[in-house]
Amino acid sequence: MLPQHCVRLLRPTILLARTSRCFSSPSETIRTQYSNVDQREVENLSKQSSEWWDPQGPIRGLHAMNSLRVPLIRDGLIATGAVDKSLIQKPNVLESLNILEVGCGGGILTEALAKLHSNVVGIDPSEKLISVAKEHAKESATLRPEHLQYHVETIEQHAAKHAERYDAVVASEVLEHVNDKVAFVEQCLAALKPGGSMFLTTINKTTPSWLGAIVAAEQIFHLVPEGTHDWDKFISPLDLQRILSSYNCTTILVHGMFYQFWSNQWCWTKNTEINYALHAVKMKEQ
Fold it and tell me: Are 260 and 267 in contact (CB under 8 A)?
């Protein structure tokens, strides 16, 4: 019989093994040329479609995250010179900029960017979530239709038709659901103009992230539905920067993000061990 302290040490390993089996079985992945689309992941997120726009519902954390990620994108585009100086202090600060949101879900971030007058395209492989996004946009009195488009597409499909079209590509809370991160980043960058910005928010691959994003968020406090995350799919900021660097991108910012679940608020932090945001720029050819 194992000593009690050994049992305690083994328990996280056992739980991690169980977690990693949730979505990683090859037989459960869509067998198309778009291998990054895991049907079980799509179905799991689609189940929340009816509650997507409930700010106090199961994905209230995504609603609250806009308080960080909208300024991150806006300020990042200002800092890189993409924004016209005359618009910096105006409500239409992102006027005329083309932005692609990959894995937009029901459009929580997409709409927020469109309200800053950018031309935003949101893509997602879930028909249910794109339908929710389109319906919600129709009901908004503050959205101009010409600023927002939605498509049921993968990034591979979209990038093939829109090479180097966008001033910014955003993938927020998506990378932790992706099988092949190198291929995913490559396709996102294929749609990005040289000199354009890539914005990502995701989850680090650490023991604290397993405890926080899976054990606490899913199993104890039920902040998100159980099975939402797979620890094996998390990625460290350093590994993500290495991927970006291999595609001629320079990382200019990495911020830690902390979720105060008791108040449903996010704040910036120097600690990147759980959630983090990254801004990289695609370098122009010499």
Answer: yes
DSSP letter (8 states) at residue 32: S
CA 181 to chain centre: 12
Torsion angles phi and psi, residue 159, rounded to 5 = -65, -30
Model confidence, pTM = 0.86
AA letter at 203: I
Q: What is the rounded distance in angstroms from the CA atom of residue 68 to the CA atom of residue 263?
A: 15
Contact 106, 52 (CB under 8 A): yes
pLDDT tens figures, 174-207 = 999 999 999 999 999 999 999 999 999 999 999 9
DSSP 81: T
Collapse the DSSP code of 8 into the 3-class scheme (helix H, G, I; strand E, B; otherwise coil) and give the result. helix
The conformation of residue 30, written as its DSSP 8-state character, comes to -
Q: What is the DSSP letter of 141?
A: S
- CB 206 within 8 Å of CB 273: yes
Q: How far apart are CA 211 and CA 158, in angstroms?
A: 35
